[in-house]
What does this fold into?
Amino acid sequence: MKALSRRDFLKVTGSALIGVTTGGVSLQALAKEQLPLDNPSAKALKYTHQSDKEGQTCANCMHIQGDAGNEWRPCALFPNHLVNNNGWCAGWVKQP
It folds into this structure.
C-alpha cells in the first residue's frame, strides 16, 4: 500500500470536510417541518396559519427567511420549523 503524500492527504481531507458540511446543510433543510399550532412557541406567540390582521402576514414580516416563492418558509422566531406565508404571530414586524 502506497503512503499518501501530504498534498494528497490535504486534498482528500479537504474534500471530505466540504462534503460533510454541505451534506449537513442539506439534511438540516430536510429536517424542517411545518410549525404545528400546538407547539409551545406557536401558542405563546399566538401563531396561526391564516392571518386575520389586514396587511400583516408572515410573507411581509422581517423575521421570514427563504425563497418568497415557497408557501412554507423558515422563520427566525421558530427555529427548525416552517411557517405559512399567509400566517401571522404576535412577533410580526413590518419589513423595512
User: Anything to note?
Assistant: The chain has two domains: 1-31, 33-96. The radius of gyration is 20 Å. The first strand starts at residue 33 and ends at 34.
